[in-house]
Fold each of these.
Amino acid sequence: MRVLVAEDDPIAQELIRSFLEGEGYQVTVASCGEEAWERYQASPARFVITDWKMPGVSGLELCRRIREENNGSYTYVVMLTANHEKGHFISGLAAGADDFVTKPFDPAELRIRMKSGARVLELEGKLEEKIAEIKHSREATEAAHQKLQEELDAAADVQRALLPAELANTDGIDFAWSFEPSIQLGGDAFNIFRLAEDRFGFTFVDVCGHGLKSALLAVTVQHVIDPRDRHTPLLWADSATDPKHLVVPPTEVLSRLNTQFQMDMETAQYFSMLYGVLEADTGRIQYSTAGHPPPILIPATGDIRQLEGTGFPIGIAPVAEYDHYEMKLEPGDRLLFFSDGLTEVANAQREEAGVERVIGWINEGHMLGVSEVVRLLAENVRDWAASGVPGDDVSILLVEYTGSEFRTAKPADTRLTRSS
C-alpha cells in the first residue's frame, strides 16, 4: 500500500519513512502541505500521514482538501500532533481526520494505527466492489429493460397497425375511432372493413386481461378475421353450393371463432366479441354479440338507446349459439361500438361511468361530426378516470350511415344470408 507522508521536520520525516518502509509500505514524502497536496492531486494515496503544523498549507487544511476532492476512493488520514487537548482532536475530526498519533511518535502506536486504517480501507474496498457490482447489475437490468421496452414498442406498433384504416369509396358511411390502452399494450382490437362493394364489416374484440399476453391473442384474432384473406371460409361461405364470396352472417362467424378459439385452461384466456355487417345500399345492419356490449344507437331523430345483445364470450363453452339482431338505419343514424372499458371506467369514488352517463356525453355533442364526438367521448373518459388513465382499455368506433347513393352496380353474390 502506498503512503503519502507530509512532515516539515526532516528528522521526523526520515524516521517515519524508514519505519513505514520497514513495515512493507511504499512511501512518498513531502516537506510541506502544499507539496503534499500537489503530490496527492497527481497520484491520490489511500493512506496519508500528515503533521498538524506545517508552513503554508497546514495538516488540517490538507485534510479538508483531501475530503473535498472526493476522487472515488476513500483516503485514510492520520494526523501527527503534540497537542492533547480534547478541542484539538475535535477540530481534526471535523476536518475529516480518521485517527491521531502523538509526537514524538511511538513506532508501536503507529503500527497499530496503520493496521487499524488498513482494516478500514479493506472494508472500504469491499464496499466499493459491491457498489460496482450493483452498478453493473443495474446497468444490465436497465439495458434489459430498454430492450424489453423497444420490443413492447414494436408490439404496440403492430397492434396500432391493425386498427381501422381509411377506406376508399366509403359511400354510405362515415366513421371515426379512438383507442386508449390502459397500459402500453391492450387486449382490445377492432376494425371496420369492406366485405364487398356495398357491404361493410365491423369487428370488436376484447380479450380478458391486459398486457402482452392479451395483446397477442387480440392480434391473432384480428389476423384470423382479416378480410383481405379470401382463402379462409370465416367471413365468406365455403359451401360449393353457395355463390362465390357469399358473406357469412354474424352468428355463423362467431360460432366458427368459438370452435377455433376454445379457452386454454393453463392461460384461462377468452374474449368477448361483436361482429356486424352493414348493407350500405339499404341501411340494413345485422350483428351478433359474444358477451360484448351491444352498440348504442344514436338516431338522427329520437332518443339515444343501447341496443340488445348477449351471448357467451368466445372460448367459454365448447358449443355456443349466438342470437341474430337486425335493424334498418336511416340516413344520419349513428351506431357507437365500444369496449366495456368505456362504461366501466371509474372515478376517484369508484363510481363507474355507466351507459346512461355515456349517453349524456353523446348528447353533449349531438350537433358535432363523428370525429368530434369520438374526441369528446375520449376526453370525458380521461376526465372521469380517477387518475386520468382508465383502468381498462377503452376502444370507441362511431359509424354514421349517410345513405349516399352507390354509383357502382352491386354484384348479386354480396347479399347477406341468414344462417339456418
Amino acid sequence: MSKYLFFSLCFSLLKGEIHSQVVNLDSLRFQSMIIGDTNSLFSLLDDSLLYIHSNGLVESKHSFIYSITTRKIVYQKFEFLTRRKTSMSRNAVTFRGMVMVDGLFEQQPFSIRLAFSSMYRRKGNQFRLTYWQSTKLKD
C-alpha cells in the first residue's frame, strides 16, 4: 500500500469519526434545549456563539441560555427534514438543512419550518456550536 493511499484512508476514517461526533453533539444540543438542560448547553456552546433566530433575534451564548432558563423560549420538538454537512476539516464542521421546530416564544406557541446554517468548531478536544442562523420558510 502506498503512503498516499494509507494517509488518505486514515484521513477518511478521521473525517467519518469527526462527522459522527459532531452530529451526536448536535442531537444532544437539541435534546438539551427541549428539556432545558442549561448545564449541558453551557458546555456545548462556544463562548463566541452567534445565535440568529428566524424572528431576527440575535443572541450570544449567555443570552441564549438565559432565554431558556427564564422560559422566554421553550423548545418542545425538533424534527430534521434535511441536514447535510457542507464543509469539514479537523477543526470545523458546517451544516445546512431544514428543521421543523415547535415551542413557545414569550408564551406564544409556534410551529415553524426553518432553513438553517450552523458551524461547530473545535476548541481543545471539544467541538462546540459557534454559529446558528435560521430563516422561516414559507408554507
Amino acid sequence: MLCTTIREGKECPFMSANGCSYNGGICHEVVEQCDGCNRKTELAAGWFCASCPDPGLKWETGNCNLATHVSTSSSAKRAKLNPLKASKRANR
C-alpha cells in the first residue's frame, strides 16, 4: 500500500487499512552511521532510509547489512594442506 505518514505516495510494506503498522506508527530518521549510504533519502520531514523503517536497529549489533558505503572484507582462510597429499601432487 501507499504510505500516508512520512513517505507519502511511496510503496510501504507496513501500511494497512488502519494506518502504519510499524512499531510506533512512523519511520525513524537515519542515524549518524548512515552518512554516505546511497539508500538515504531526503523527505519533507528529514532524512530517512529507503529500505529500513528504523536504521538505528540495524546498527546496534554491528554494521548494517543494507549499507552501501560499508564494505565487508572477509579474510580468506586457506585450507589446511595435508603434507602427504601435497608431496604426491608435486611428484606427478
